[in-house]
Amino acid sequence: MQRTRAATTIRDVAREAGVSVSTVSRVLNDKDDVASDTYERVQAVIQQLSYTSSLAARSMRSHRTNVIGLIVPDVADSFSIQVMKGVNRAITDLDYDLIIYTSGSIKKRSAAERERHFVSLLNGSIADGVIIVTPAATRFSTAAPVVTIDPNTECPECLTIIATNHTGALAAMEYLVELGHRRIGFIGGRPDLQCADQRLQGYKDALRRTYITVDPDLIVAGDFSAETAQQCAQRLLSLPQRPTAIFAANDQSAIGAIEAARQAGLSVPGDLSVVGFDNIPEAAFFNPALTTVDQFIDRMGQVATEILVGLIQGERPESVLYKMPTQLVVRDSCRAVGGQ
Amino acid sequence: MQRTRAATTIRDVAREAGVSVSTVSRVLNDKDDVASDTYERVQAVIQQLSYTSSLAARSMRSHRTNVIGLIVPDVADSFSIQVMKGVNRAITDLDYDLIIYTSGSIKKRSAAERERHFVSLLNGSIADGVIIVTPAATRFSTAAPVVTIDPNTECPECLTIIATNHTGALAAMEYLVELGHRRIGFIGGRPDLQCADQRLQGYKDALRRTYITVDPDLIVAGDFSAETAQQCAQRLLSLPQRPTAIFAANDQSAIGAIEAARQAGLSVPGDLSVVGFDNIPEAAFFNPALTTVDQFIDRMGQVATEILVGLIQGERPESVLYKMPTQLVVRDSCRAVGGQ
DNA sequence: CTGTTAGCGCCTTCAC
DNA sequence: GTGAAGGCGCTAACAG
Fold it and tell me: Does position A269 have pLDDT exceeding 90, yes or no?
């Protein structure tokens, strides 16, 4: 591990190669005005000392690091993981490095505070730009570009990428209605999140379009967790006239709903149809395989990266709001009413 | 988003507060020799300008950033995710920041090269120490502490954390033998990885202990992926005398084996028992719920972090090799031989 | 082609 | 208790 030796600097390389520091710098940055034998010699010394220039020093001088930052609420949450996947793919193609920070679940500071903290920590210092996943804050004071994915509340000053939640919810509902369902329960997400609200609106609008009365008893507020959704579903299922289908605002909630159905002795999809939202990887493996609305989360990460890198390289954004398409994925968790 | 304004520096704060830069620096670093009213005033300006000191500049001077780096092969791989979870938990408690880098699946450079690249990029620059998950490289030239988790090959110069793979495999095999299985197939991991090898040795040793002959036909080499494991399992299941149980070197492989069994018209656990290794979160949800060896991956991340921070703060390591316990988790994917 | 010079933003003496 | 000066490792002018 060679812990003894202090970090090698550009000066060590210069001394060893018998040139000046600036020549080494030129070699490092592939400037073309270096004699080829000098170039070779310096490269050899760099190899030999296994020297890497200090990111800190480099960024301080040149204000360019080829690093982009990603701030996620929680590295273990599946939405974040999908985004990371997409970002990582794009980063690789674009020849950037990626740094990931976690903003969430911290006792001391709120998520919004931590987001701001990381943005200023990264921007103008270690990263050329930042992507923030489901930010709680709505404005960030920074000189470098910021792209947000699925912000909690509208974020008019930021470039944001968000799924067509309303359209996706419409598609899910239309499918259930086509299967003959008329009493359809809705398990919402956290009401303070715009994506949750858009899905709720989609639910309501779909019902209105088909002249089904919106029954407030059929709408319960979850929080995107399976546990809460399970309790919500219990309430829905013990209604005097229980729903024949449940549309959950995300897949976790759908899984909670299925668990509640099981506990109530109802089979899915036999006695209850369930649709989720997100299409997390587990959805396909779940039993029954979950019918859900895919929002191509990894694509959102990829697009965010491409846009961000564009901004870094000085392009003007075409728009401040990118809507990503959604698509209904039909699997085994729904069945036509009566069609046992 | 305030893109116009350039990043605020310590000088802006100093000017605004009517003090010198050094005084601001003192306030920033909580030195006690600042008059309380000066302190207040400077703090107010910092708030007002929402100033954050530049990580780059700070690290360059003080060689201390309170950031630790984590290098994972792939952010979307479940082993890495579990480690990230544990690291993140520990980081929070210890009041450090975390930076995550991805080393894997890059066309241009090998994983080992990328690991070295990131280590020197982070250490002695932006991070006070680094944790590397399943490193391919065995030595890193750096001045800052490095901790490795589950290195591919032995890494005598590094502080490493690794599960008791041999013992875990032993436990899994003893369980299968107790259930009456005598012909037990083994789907290995990549043979160049020490964890895979240790699990294979555990498999063999368990058989020897119970005086069961090790049949080379029952041992096939996978690569920790479900796809390859499926093919491996097909081969095992089409053996003249097919195994009644399969021990897979990780959960993904176990899932592949179950899929192969299903395609061959065999029920799990009715006709074939399957044990995995890892206990990834999906294992519990899988159908049938997977019996597996838990290696408490998140704990490994947590312990790695605690050890690393200890090293950063100047503690001497107690050992260079930390072995983390494993535990058999019995679920529904195994059954006694003949006990239909 | 290469060396010299001047900072980037910050922290750390050392004076006052 | 506070300011001024120097330098961390590096790059970007400017000389030669």
Answer: yes
pLDDT band at B104 (very low <50, low <70, confident <90, very high): low
Query: What is the number of alpha carbons within 13 Å of residue A255 lying toward its C-beta?
Result: 19
Nearest to A221 by CA among A243, A242, A199: A199
Q: Is the separation of the CB atoms in A292 and A279 below 8 Å?
A: yes
Q: Which of residues 163-202 of A touch B (CB under 8 A)?
A: none
pLDDT tens digit sequence for B42-68: 999 999 988 889 989 998 888 888 889
Segment A127-139 shows an average pLDDT of: 92
Q: How far apart are CA B187 and CA B200, in angstroms?
A: 9
Distance (Å) from the alpha carbon of A25 to chain B's nearest alpha carbon: 16
Percent of chain A topping pLDDT 90: 68
Name every residue whose Cβ is closer than 8 Å to that of residue B15 and which is 6 or more positions away in sequence. Answer: none
Q: What is d(CA B335, CA B176) in angstroms, rounded to the nearest whole number?
A: 9
Please answer yes or no on whether B60 and A56 come within 8 Å at the CB atom. yes
Looking at chain A, how many residues does it have?
340
Do A98 and B97 lie within an 8 Å CB cutoff? no
B62 in helix, strand or coil?
helix
Nucleotide in closest CA–C1' contact with B9: C9
A 202-241 residues with CB < 8 A to B: none
DSSP H or E stretch at residue A297? helix A297-312
Nearest CB among B3, B99, B142 relative to A2 is that of B142
In this structure, are strands B245-248 and B273-278 parallel, antiparallel, or unpaired? parallel
Strands (E) in chain B, as ranges, are: 67-72, 97-102, 129-133, 146-149, 159-163, 184-188, 219-221, 245-248, 273-278, 291-294, 321-324, 327-329
Q: What is the mean pLDDT of residues B162-178?
A: 98
Whether B105 shows a pLDDT value over 60: the answer reads no
Distance from C-alpha of B257 to C-alpha of B259, rounded to nearest angstrom: 5
**Band of residue A327 on the pLDDT scale cut at 50, 70, 90:** very high
Per the omega criterion (within 30 degrees of 0), is the bond before A281 cis?
A: no
Tell me which amino acid residue A180 is.
G
pLDDT surpassing 60 at residue B81: yes
| Rounded CA separation B190/B152 (Å) | 10
Q: Which pLDDT tens digit goes with each residue over A211-231?
A: 999 999 999 999 999 999 999
Q: Do A97 and B121 touch (CB under 8 A)?
A: yes
Tokens 């003080």 — which residue?
B62
Q: Which of A99, A123, A287 sits opposite B287 (nearest CB)?
A: A287
Q: Which of B 12-31 have CB under 7 A of nucleic chain D?
A: 18-23, 26
Residues of B in contact with A99 (CB under 8 A): 99-101
* Assigned token pair, A38: 């000098």
DSSP string for B27-53:
HHTT-S-S-HHHHHHHHHHHHHHT---
> What is the reported pLDDT for A107?
58
**Which residue would you say has higher pLDDT here, B248 or B59?**
B248
Return the structure tokens found at A61: 């001088």
Q: Which of A296, A312, A306, A308 is nearest to A90 (CA)?
A: A306
Task: Report CB contact under 8 Å: A81, B76.
Answer: yes
**Secondary structure (DSSP) of A149-204:** ES-SS--TTSEEEEE-HHHHHHHHHHHHHHTT--SEEEEE--TTSHHHHHHHHHHH
